[in-house]
Design a protein that fits this description.
The structure is a single chain. The chain is α/β, with parallel strands linked by helices. The chain has two domains: about 120 residues, 3-Layer(aba) Sandwich (Rossmann fold), CATH 3.40.50.720; about 180 residues, Rossmann fold. Helix content is about 35%, strand content about 15%. The chain contains twelve helices and twelve strands. It has a seven-stranded parallel β-sheet with strand order 8-7-6-9-10-11-12, with helices on both faces. Strands 2-1-3-4-5 form a five-stranded parallel β-sheet. The protein is globular and about 70 Å long. The two termini are about 25 Å apart. The relative contact order is 0.15. Bound molecules: 1,4-dihydronicotinamide adenine dinucleotide and 3-hydroxypyruvic acid. 3-hydroxypyruvic acid (3PY) binds next to loops. This is Glyoxylate/hydroxypyruvate reductase B. InterPro entries: D-isomer_2-hydroxyacid_DH (IPR050223), D-isomer_2_OHA_DH_cat_dom (IPR006139), D-isomer_DH_CS1 (IPR029752), D-isomer_DH_NAD-bd (IPR006140), NAD(P)-bd_dom_sf (IPR036291). GO terms for molecular function: glyoxylate reductase (NADPH) activity; hydroxypyruvate reductase [NAD(P)H] activity; NAD binding.
Length: about 325
């Protein structure tokens, strides 16, 4: 008998066909109240789950006694209680690598847009405010040659360093769990403490996962260490930052601006003070959101799920201790 898979993210026709050939599929189209009720109703017979952007906590997963595998269509796994999944020997997989370059592109788009005030000035033109040559009041700040600071030198951090070093001649500072000699050799990057990075980088970029250790890592104390010319970029997770402290730092001109793809609460409230600030560029968690990359992520997730349901070890298994071998 075919295994039962619950999708809470829509797949392309091609991937859907592939999944349906191997499994009985329930598709939850939208994660609204009705969709969540459908999900609850489907969980008791589910062997596999595939999706993203949903906190799958124990209260929900206790409804799924037969669950064997979850394929997250994301590299970040902060939506899952990994200890709980491991205890129940539920295999959790994610989608690293396929989104690395696209997410680093988004990071650089935010660096450029924030430093060169692209959104603010494009809006000025759109609103008919371009009546004469712009002057210093509308000038931005250079990106090339400035110091790029990367907090969390993993896959995306390295891709950002590559762009900064080769594309923009930027000296690279980084802080991570441990130094990476290969990265230092390739990009001339220099390992330093978090404090030194905050004090010296012109662009402070977050490319860390959200974990118990990183939750609230960047707060009032961190912003106080940054310089009034520095620009803060977050393409990791909103909860790594104390958003109230960020708003205060922007209000008090402790930093020049911020490029933010992620927020403490998503979607961001329309009345967030961040949206009133010209020196903030806010994007809707779109780091990996290109047609090509989202399809590659979905394909990776389907591969992981089908491997697990066939009794194999998914290539991108997150909780290795859940694997019986
Ligand atoms: N904005 C978006 O749409 C996207 C956001 N992301 C976020 O980016 C994160 C990073 O992704 P990858 O680069 O693929 O992960 P990765 O695991 O390759 O890199 C993370 C790096 O952070 C370091 N790190 C972790 N905790 C640390 C700590 N407390 N102090 C110092 N360094 C620490 C790790 O050692 C590692 O080098 C994801 O977990 C996800 O949350 C990923 C893709 C898209
Ligand atoms: O993969 C992730 O972790 C994302 O945030 C979306 O691509």
């Amino acid at each position: 008998m075919k295994k039962h898979v619950v999708l809470y993210k829509k797949l392309s026709a091609q991937l859907m066909e592939r999944l349906q050939a191997q499994a009985q599929v329930t598709l939850i189209e939208r994660l609204d109240a009705q969709g969540l009720a459908q999900l609850r109703a489907a969980l008791p017979t589910a062997h596999g789950l595939l999706g993203a952007s949903l906190k799958l906590d124990a209260a929900l997963l206790d409804l799924a006694p037969n669950l064997h595998a979850i394929a997250s269509v994301s590299v970040g796994v902060d939506n899952y209680d990994i200890d709980y999944l491991t205890e129940r020997r539920i295999l959790l997989s994610n989608t690293p690598d396929v989104l690395t370059e696209t997410t680093a592109d988004t990071g650089f788009a935010l660096i450029l847009a924030t430093a060169r005030r692209v959104v603010e000035l494009a809006n000025l033109v759109r609103e008919g405010g371009w009546q004469q040559s712009i002057g210093p009041r509308h000038f931005g700040t250079d990106v090339h040659g400035k110091t790029l600071g990367i907090i969390g030198m993993g896959r995306i951090g390295e891709a950002l360093a590559q762009r900064g070093h080769f594309g923009f001649g930027m000296p690279v500072l980084y802080h991570s769990h441990s130094p990476k000699p290969a990265v230092e050799q390739r990009f001339g990057a220099r390992y330093c403490s978090l404090e030194t990075l905050l004090q010296q980088a012109d662009f402070v970029c977050l490319t860390l996962p959200l974990t118990a250790e990183t939750h609230g890592l960047i707060g009032a104390q961190a912003f106080a260490q940054m310089r009034p010319e520095s620009i803060f970029i977050n393409i990791s997770r909103g909860k790594v930052v104390d958003e109230a402290a960020l708003i205060e730092a922007l209000r008090n001109h402790q930093i020049r601006g911020a490029g933010l793809d992620v927020f403490e609460r998503e979607p961001l409230n329309a009345d967030s003070p961040l949206l009133q600030m010209d020196n903030v560029v806010a994007t809707p968690h779109m780091g990996s959101a290109t047609h090509e990359t989202r399809e590659a992520m979905a394909q990776c997730a389907v591969d992981n799920l089908l491997a697990a349901l066939a009794g194999g070890r998914p290539v991108n298994l997150v909780n290795a201790r859940a694997w019986k071998g």
